[in-house]
């Protein structure tokens, strides 16, 4: 059950979509001085080396972040995402890729709070080590790190369960990223059940769910189930980089389902997604869909890029 290692997939097209959206959601929350809480129910290792270990085996980043690395015409949201990764690779060679916790750590401010759950013993150990390194680096640069102990907390427990104890956050402002491996089909059910409970505790929070678009029933049904949750607004964006393979093997498409999205997200994605499709397309089957709605129905209608 805990065989999934995100390093195999680090920096692939699905990570690109997820992390660009994540950074923009956090940026929006950071526009007000009041602190927010970022909760990552499935945090992973935090940082991934691309030239060694699991990531170097599959080199999935070559069909993702690598295709954006040297581009000079990136739309602003993509430029910010690539800029964050360039900062962690000061030699100019892409050696490290940030996971969602690292993206959040870079974007969140001192007053914000970061709460990370990672169940896999090895991954959570690496996550803790990565955060220790970030803190030592910040201290060496003379940056304040004294609030870090409280600012970031890592728990080696089940994120679906742990989330309950954090909602609502004291500031009543927050973003929850739910990004399970979906290796077991129960993950699909748990995503929905967790959201039902979380929305009851914190209805005004923003929730971002990453999901794979696969030819299996649970995957196809998940966005439709999420659309029926009693929420004010939702946004669903998918990115496909190729035609699905005949045997259904491999990940050709993924989505981000956002509950209570900021109003800025849809126009930003309308600008960004056509660019992303062109940059990451592997064949004419590449495209995107973007739709918005309320808990009562769909407003925007799906559009393919
Ligand atoms: N969010 C990370 C990112 O964007 O960089 C990637 C996370 S990866 C897709 C999913 C992670 O969830 C894996 O590291 C896995 O060990 C962990 N995991 C699996 N089940 C979990 C659970 N119930 N609670 C917390 N972590 C879990």
Describe the fold and architecture.
By secondary structure, this protein is of the alpha/beta class. It has a single domain, classed as Vaccinia Virus protein VP39 (Rossmann fold, 3-Layer(aba) Sandwich). The chain is built from 11 helices and 11 strands. The protein has a 9-stranded mixed β-sheet, sandwiched between helices. A two-stranded antiparallel sheet has the order 2-3. The protein binds S-adenosylmethionine. S-adenosylmethionine binds next to helix 8.
Largest sheet, strands/sense/barrel: 9 strands, mixed
Termini separation (Å)? Answer: 36 Å
> What would CATH call the homologous superfamily?
Vaccinia Virus protein VP39
Q: Please report which band the strand proportion falls in: under 5%, 5-15%, 15-25%, 25-35%, 35-45% or over 45%.
A: 15-25%
Major sheet: arrangement of strands = 5-4-1-6-7-9-8-10-11
List the main descriptive attributes of the protein structure presented here.
single chain, 305 residues, alpha/beta, Rossmann fold, 9-stranded mixed beta sheet, two-stranded antiparallel sheet, globular, binds S-adenosylmethionine
What are the SSEs and their pairings?
Elements: H1 13-29, E1 37-40, E2 47-49, H2 53-58, H3 66-69, H4 76-87, E3 96-98, H5 100-107, E4 113-117, H6 121-140, H7 148-151, E5 152-155, H8 159-162, E6 174-178, H9 186-201, E7 206-212, H10 217-227, E8 234-240, E9 253-259, H11 265-280, E10 287-294, E11 297-298
Parallel strand pairs: 1-4, 1-6, 4-5, 6-7
Antiparallel strand pairs: 2-3, 7-9, 8-9, 8-10, 10-11
S-adenosylmethionine is lined by residues 2, 4, 6, 18, 40, 42-44, 99-100, 117-120, 123, 158-160, 179-181.
């Amino acid at each position: 059950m805990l065989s999934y290692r995100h390093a195999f997939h680090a920096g692939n097209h699905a990570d690109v979509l997820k992390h660009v959206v994540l950074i923009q959601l956090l940026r929006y929350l950071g526009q007000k001085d009041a602190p927010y809480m970022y909760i990552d129910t499935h945090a992973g290792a935090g940082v991934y080396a691309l030239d060694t270990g699991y990531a170097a085996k599959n080199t999935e980043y070559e069909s993702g972040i690598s295709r954006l690395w040297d581009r000079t015409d990136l739309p602003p949201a993509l430029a910010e995402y690539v800029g964050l990764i360039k900062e962690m690779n000061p030699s100019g060679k892409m050696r490290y890729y940030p996971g969602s916790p690292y993206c959040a750590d870079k974007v969140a401010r001192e007053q914000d709070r970061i709460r990370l759950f990672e169940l896999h013993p090895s991954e959570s150990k690496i996550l803790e080590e990565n955060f220790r390194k970030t803190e030592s680096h910040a201290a060496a640069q003379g940056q304040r790190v004294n609030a870090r102990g409280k600012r970031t907390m890592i728990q080696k427990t089940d994120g679906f369960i742990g989330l309950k104890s954090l909602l609502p956050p004291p500031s009543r402002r927050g973003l929850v990223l739910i990004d399970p491996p979906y290796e077991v089909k129960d993950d699909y059910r748990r995503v929905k059940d967790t959201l039902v409970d979380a929305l009851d505790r914190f209805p005004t929070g923003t929730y971002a769910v990453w999901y794979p678009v696969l030819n299996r029933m649970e995957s196809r049904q998940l966005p439709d189930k999420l659309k029926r949750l009693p929420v004010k607004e939702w946004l669903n964006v998918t990115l496909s980089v190729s035609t699905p393979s005949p045997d259904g093997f491999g990940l050709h498409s993924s989505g981000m389902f956002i509950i209570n999205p900021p109003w800025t997200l849809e126009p930003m994605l309308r600008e960004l997604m056509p660019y992303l499709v062109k940059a990451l397309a592997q064949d004419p089957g590449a495209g995107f869909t973007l739709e918005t709605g309320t808990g009562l129905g769909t407003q925007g209608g799906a559009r393919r890029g």
